[in-house]
Predict the structure.
Amino acid sequence: MTADVMPGEVDCLVLGGGITGAGVARDAAMRGLRTVLVDSHDFASGTSHLTSKLIHGGLRYLEHCHFRLVAEGIIERDRLLNRMASNLVSPLRFVIPFEGNRFPKWLLTVCGLQLYGLSEWLRSGRRSRPLLAANLRKQYPALRPHPFGVDFWDAQTNDARLVMATIRTACAAGAVAHNYTNVTELARVGNGWTVRLRREVDHHEWNIRAGVIINATGPWSPMTAERLGAEAQDLLWVKGSHLLLRRPPEFGDDAVVIQSVRDRRALWIIPWETRLIIGSTESLYRGDLRDVRPDAEEVDDLFDSFSRYFARLDFTRGDILGAYAGVRPIVSQNGETENSLSRRHAILADADRRLITITGGKLTTFRKMAEQAVDCTERLLARPPPARQVRKRLRKELLWPGLSRPDVDELVGALEKSRGRSVPSPTVIPHLVRHYGSQTSTILDAIVAEPLLGETLYAGLPYCLAELGYLCETEKVWRLLDLLKRRTPLYFLADRGSLDGLSQVVEHVAPILNWSEARQAEEMAAVVEEFRADTQAFADHRDLQAEVPTLAAFA
Ligand SMILES: Cc1cc2nc3c(=O)[nH]c(=O)nc-3n(C[C@H](O)[C@H](O)[C@H](O)COP(=O)(O)OP(=O)(O)OC[C@H]3O[C@@H](n4cnc5c(N)ncnc54)[C@H](O)[C@@H]3O)c2cc1C
């Protein structure tokens, strides 16, 4: 992904480097289409790094009878979990506690969950089970007592890494991907488009010809369609907010489904690395898509709902460590409320304009969405559909770095034996192998040459400077926030938005990224500013603003 190359002529130009565009670029490149993907900002900088991090069938859509959608989600979940990305997607157990007066509903849910979990049950033996008060008390000591509950299995991922792994897979198959790159001029010519692209961060410009343009710009897709002179799809923006709390050991490793105190909607409490994620709210949104933040009302709803179930943990609002919000692009349907709106996706093919727009859907179903969008692309390009073996490969082949779960274990074992003594923390090698596969050796070489680069940066997290340096060299990092929010999730997982280790990080990456002193200060200021803005909604509960250091603190 490092070179500045850009082919002069391509079959498809994909606009948008979230999970949808990444999936489309992977599918197209693996079918042999000449593919370029550009994102006008950073890869995954839209909704795709602000999700609940679940790879799931979508249990709550069953309430609204979206059976097909759930079935599709389950198939894609199993595919990612057990085959395509088992290094990045892990099983997650959920428990739903029930109140005393909801016995029939509980029994119905127990029966429904047997069907929901059938495929995982048959494959791995993990199955949904009813739980009575004593089991609940024993297994979830922090949860307030409930007479019964039920568990089920879904899966969890690191959303932004899933996007990067998909983009890297596309590039390994011949695609070219550039972030911070905008379409500045375009015209319809003959069988396609001529397009001028400009990378805003270094003013690099390219002219290309594209057979088809694929608009995969998520919530931005109506504006993109308009820019391309096409009819904009009717899309609703639904905002979802999450809170981040410290993950106490008493909480355990399972996620818990609770009800919102405000409107009884289902909310998740999800353990994720060092944090509990509580989310998500749902409300229609009309603001700036680059500045989506939780508001105080949402913070109250999430925190009060959490406290109602987990008062024993004794958290106060002052314990809120972070909050984030994203916007779902939802294909609008008459008469539905924001809670019941379907997460189905829609593909619009405009043969005259040689333009395809793909929107809606979920992180979980990106592969399926991409398959359908690229089928449409091939039809517009008058190419025959792919051979059966190609289609089979597309449905199964591992995402970059191409490791199955047993491969990960084997490589971790081999590297720990041969290089383990040069790495100070035992968590580093397994973490690196899961994310970068055989490229881990490159990172370990840097640690052998300079052992300090292998020290972990933040307590309880396996990230070290050698990894950050590798990411700057290989994954088109232009801004410090790209590195801290998307190539890694340090901003969300380290205390105070990773501000504490900031100068050390910048000192290490500045020579790699060619940053002057002024640029270093500018990048750090941007992280401080982001943290200040993100904490607005709950800062009045705690003197957080006073805690945000000024830039002078980094001097
Ligand atoms: C709160 C919340 C929680 C969610 N949780 C889950 C979950 O747990 N599991 C799940 O399966 N799904 C989840 N989803 C749904 C899922 O996150 C989205 O469906 C998915 O991320 C949308 O991806 P996308 O690529 O279509 O859009 P985005 O991720 O928003 O990507 C669009 C990209 O287009 C770029 N762009 C914009 N304009 C242009 C342009 N003119 N040219 C080039 N690029 C452009 C943007 O910079 C951006 O990177 C959640 C959604 C929300 C809001």
